[in-house]
Amino acid sequence: MLRFKSDRKKCVKKIFIPSHHLSTNVIFSHLYSLWPVILSSQAIFMAYAEHIQQTIRSISNSPGIYQYFDRNDRLLYVGKAKNLKKRVSSYFSKKHDSARIEVMVKKIHRIETVVTETEFDALLLENNLIKTHQPRYNINLKDDKTYPWICIKNERFPRVFPTRQKINDGSEYFGPYASVRVMKTVLELARQLYPIRTCKYNLSKENISAGKFKVCLEYHIGNCLGPCEDHQSEDEYNESIKAVRNLIKGQLNDVRKALQKQMHAQAERLEFEAAQKTKERLDRIEKYQAKSVVSHPGISNVDVFSAITDATHGYVNFLKIIDGAVIQSHSMEFKRKLEETENELLELAIPEIRQLYNSHAPEIYVSHEVELAIPDVKISIPQRGDKKSIVELSLRNAKYHRLERLKNMQTVDPDRHVKRLMQQMKTDLRLPEEPRHAECFDNSNLQGTNAVAACVVFKNGKASKKDYRHFNIKTVEGPDDFASMEEVVYRRYKRLKEEGAPLPQLVVVDGGKGQLSAGLRALERLELRGKITIIGIAKRLEEIYYPSDPLPLYLDKKSETLKVIQQMRDEAHRFGITHHRNKRSKNTFRSSLEDIQGIGPESVRQLLRQFGSVNGIKQADEKTLSGVVGSSKAKRIIQHFNQNE
């Protein structure tokens, strides 16, 4: 029996060959019949590999978590990464020593990622997702191995202590802490600065009045002020708890000042070992991180929704929070058929996503106001604090999902990408038509000398270098950017009109109102005002200026439209500077050689063609020079350089 196993679908093709009278011809005949299956399997493998590589190319370099799903959409593995793209690509770019990893990689059919603010947040989110979904290839995380918290107990004369279990009794919990050492540093510092009891006594008024308790060693060494024997009032103790709470939250200015004062005092008393320990404590507290974006003990059983839009599509992100931890993230793409706003997208997406995930959370946080009434569900837009932070995390993931989709589209369907980009630019720049053909102008001169200008051409959002043009300024003397801009814009479109060539839909000038007005005057002279949209981009704040509009337009710094305009401006500047340098260099050569009596432009060209530079001509001997321009001119050149040394 011969067996062939195709790669990804694990389909097995069996061919039974009689055990008797086996011949080479028979075997090859059966193998030949199997060849179409082999080719089909190879095509499947190539398509799979391309799908995975395409997904990896669109993954962000940000920190976050990645999730691997099999063909049946079962979660195989959850992992964290400081750089998502590098980590995920490593699974598919090398041979693994572990057979278990090798098997898992073969099962991967879909990859999902969630970006986070820090690597610490990725660590916590990974922990939450593994506990919730228990993927097959992850180590099971037991509850007793979860990250610790700092608890301020809900009781009279509250205790402050570490715990791995959160009890819903009104106590305050801070964390979680990925580093136990950091947590212990915070607790140790709190106890050094503020006397807090460590005993578990029930310090009710009745028990204290009855004298049931006696002060312990902590009181005698100064770590506790003895509330058990009524040596410290409840108000005074609560002031210390308030200070400890601020310390744990990360409000460290007062703490830092106290430690610095203590360190200097110890150094003045020549207690250098104690001063060094205080300094180490100060260094650790500088690195202390009080809380995480992905875990909030005060937020329980909440759905979070956020939305962003571009010219053609909308993107909605959903986060599910249970017991203060993000346990689920999902992003969806919607085609905007009637230019729906973010509010309208959320109104459509919230019921659909909640039904998809069978969510019955009694509270929803949203990024935009919605007119949506769900029975027994409170919908709100958080304005500050932890709740606002979690909405911002959702927005970051919506934006990341959009960028991921755009990268895929640009590679897989470039025509759709161009159409969407053109529509986006038309909307952002308030243009009457899509800027399929756009041009940008920039001037370049050195103290008014060798003045030149550049015109770069972009078609469908990409540079068309064969259409670039540069200009030598002819009618302007001195450093006059406005007049130079008017000259080159006039010359460019006068020629296009005379040749009957197509005119651009958008003209960009590098500069503010002055350069824009100069370009506009050129268009008016050519009777093209209103037929071509002209704008200016100022470098200081990247503001966009329009004719007859005193207020500039400020685009989002991350918008694709602004990036295309900036790319045009930078390309025009580069192209203009290159031409200016070449012209200045050529003029320097000519002025140096043409000062020699009897050496004309043609001789200069021959010399530069032969020797490459003025320095090369200087180093040549008379015989070599004579072979290029004759003995008479060679002697004059040698004499000229000798006199000027």
What's the gist of this structure?
The protein is α+β, with helices and mostly antiparallel strands and 645 residues long. The protein has helices at 24-57, 84-92, 99-107, 119-133, 180-193, 205-209, 217-220, 234-249, 253-268, 272-286, 342-356, 385-412, 414-428, 481-499, 513-525, 560-594, 601-611, 614-619, 622-629, 631-643; strands at 2-5, 12-15, 64-69, 75-81, 110-115, 149-152, 160-163, 172-174, 302-309, 313-322, 325-335, 363-366, 378-380, 437-446, 449-459, 462-463, 469-472, 506-510, 533-537, 544-545. The radius of gyration is 37 Å and the shape is elongated.
Detailed description of the structure:
Among the domains are: 54 residues; 84 residues, GIY-YIG endonuclease (3-Layer(aba) Sandwich); 110 residues, Alpha-Beta Plaits (2-Layer Sandwich), CATH 3.30.70; 153 residues, UvrC, RNAse H endonuclease domain (Nucleotidyltransferase, domain 5); 49 residues, Orthogonal Bundle (DNA polymerase, domain 1), CATH 1.10.150. It is 47% helix and 18% strand. It contains 20 helices and 20 strands. The strands form five sheets. Strands 14, 15, 16, 17, 18, 19 and 20 form a seven-stranded mixed sheet that branches. It has a five-stranded mixed sheet with strand order 11-10-9-12-13. Helix 15 links the parallel strand 18 and strand 19. It is elongated.
